[in-house]
Specification:
The chain is an all-alpha fold. The protein is built from 27 helices and no strands.
């Protein structure tokens, strides 16, 4: 066994030294059960902890207004919203007549859909600076998101400067109010002003809807409103699309496309029961429409009705829904949750047939074949395909090694894992599978050490969880062993 351990000496020891782990410590067992990663159970502490990149250094000093603003912006950029707001609140307390803290807080609240608070924060900016352009734009976005379209229009109409974003927003709220010629002018201005290509593209989308309606002479008003609702959806302005579609359906209840668009808007605003009801209405009008069936499958999945979700998606598949890869990905996920592993694996393989450019697409089907269906030969075949399509990625070698472990081909498994480790010594999954290999050959000490490595390197991800689970099971079998005197330098010699 010492020979096998020597093979890993230089590769693993390099990581050990890099991590500063010079002595081996066995994780202590929790008295009440298996090892569980420690969590913060203090309800008085913030859910967000100060990130490493903002750790205080040197002698503490009292922060200035600019310190709070700059730290708040950095925190917000990195997604630490509650910590960022705390910094901006501190800045606001130091300078209550400055608008910047209110603006920064309002931006976070708008981005997180905390609309009532966002409105109050942005109104506070305008009390201090009545002509603040960005505050007016953000307040109008807040009102639109809250479906207060007329209030948003009033704010936007008060803007006198020529700004690309404000003109675009004026265009879409004016279209909603029914002044279509004026809306077109605003949208054209939005295209010519500024340099944001996304705003220009969205403005062109609305103008295309108008052109499509104009090309069909004699079209009804509800047809125009439906075309505009489609543009609102495509531009992610779902909250404007919804009330507009109410108008359409009130006038023409059997308008299939309006029901589909309404269901889609509800899906994208997380109103899943409403989405299900709208899409069921669309299905009554046209039971074979693949888009209806696909969106309905997503809605049922979101509310937890997995059987109906699978049925709807299978029907969408039979009726030719495109793109197929999206449908197969969702079916694979649903069948996995239903523990229908054969169908899940089939759908995952269908995904790979359609798109094998992402190495991560191979992981789930290989796991199913190894851990759920006990079909390692299929896992080996998939891993070989991963090696062919991704020969320069450590993950493909890791997958090949994993599959070989389960077939009992230890020498081949170790060969793949050695190559994977040489290619990427920081890939946590390699250490997990090395642990499995050592456990397979009966080297408990090595397996325990490697599971610990995988756990620490995974930082709480799925690899980390799997490593903790395997560690607990192995320690449960080996409670009688004494590891207190094991030293890593002895283990890997």
């Amino acid at each position: 066994m010492k020979k096998r351990l020597t093979i890993l000496t230089y590769a693993v020891l390099g990581i050990i030294i890099a991590l500063g782990l010079y002595t081996f410590e066995v994780w202590p067992l929790n008295p009440g059960g298996p090892f569980v990663p420690q969590t913060n159970n203090n309800p008085t502490e913030s859910a967000e902890k100060l990130p490493d990149f903002l750790a205080e250094e040197g002698i503490a000093r009292e922060k200035t207004y600019d310190d709070h603003i700059n730290r708040g912006k950095l925190l917000a950029q990195n997604g630490y919203n509650s910590l960022a707001i705390s910094e901006f609140e501190a800045a606001k307390a130091m300078a209550p007549n400055k608008s910047e803290p209110f603006m920064e807080i309002g931006k976070i609240q708008l981005a997180t859909n905390d609309l009532i608070k966002a409105k109050l924060s942005l109104e506070s900016v305008l009390k201090l600076e009545p002509d603040n352009l960005q505050a007016k734009i953000n307040l109008s976005k807040t009102l639109i998101a809250d479906r207060k379209i007329d209030e948003a229009k009033a704010i936007l109409d008060s803007i006198k400067s020529h700004n690309q974003t404000s003109k675009y927003l004026q265009g879409i709220v004016t279209a909603y109010s029914g002044d279509h010629e004026k809306a077109k002018n605003f949208l054209r201005e939005a295209i010519t002003l500024g340099t944001d290509p996304n705003i220009a593209a969205n403005a062109k989308n609305f103008l295309s809807a108008y052109n499509e309606f104009d090309s069909n002479q004699g079209g009804s008003n509800i047809h125009l409103l439906t075309l505009l609702a489609r543009s609102y959806n495509q531009s992610k302005e779902y909250e404007i699309a919804i009330p507009l579609l109410f108008k359409v359906i009130k006038e023409k209840k059997d308008y299939r496309d309006a029901w589909i668009l309404l269901g889609y808007a509800y899906l994208n605003t997380q109103k899943y029961l409403d989405a299900t009801e709208a899409l069921e209405e669309a299905r009554k009008l046209d039971p074979q429409k693949p888009q209806t069936l696909f969106f309905l499958g997503l809605a049922y999945f979101a509310i937890g009705d997995l059987q109906k979700a699978a049925q709807s998606l299978e029907l969408a598949k039979q009726n030719g829904y495109e793109p197929k890869v999206q449908l197969e990905q969702k079916l694979a996920e649903i069948y996995l949750q239903l523990q229908n592993y054969e169908k899940s694996a089939t759908s995952y393989e269908n995904v790979l047939t359609l798109n094998n450019q992402d190495i991560n697409y191979y992981i789930k089907p290989i796991w199913i074949y190894l851990d759920r269906l006990n079909q390692p030969e299929k896992a080996v075949k998939l891993a070989a395909s991963a090696l062919t399509t991704h020969p320069t990625e450590a993950m493909s070698l890791n997958l090949a090694g994993w599959a070989q472990i389960e077939t009992g081909n230890i020498a081949k498994a170790e060969e793949y894992l050695q190559k994977a480790l040489a290619m990427d010594p920081n890939l946590d999954a390699i250490y997990l599978n090395y642990g499995k290999l050592y456990e397979k050959i009966g080297d408990t000490e090595g397996a325990i050490y490697l599971y610990k490595q995988a756990y620490q390197m995974g930082h709480g991800n799925s690899i980390s969880s799997a490593a903790a689970d395997l560690y607990n099971k192995l320690i449960g079998k080996e409670r009688s062993l004494d590891y207190s005197n094991i030293n890593v330098n002895v283990l890997y010699q």
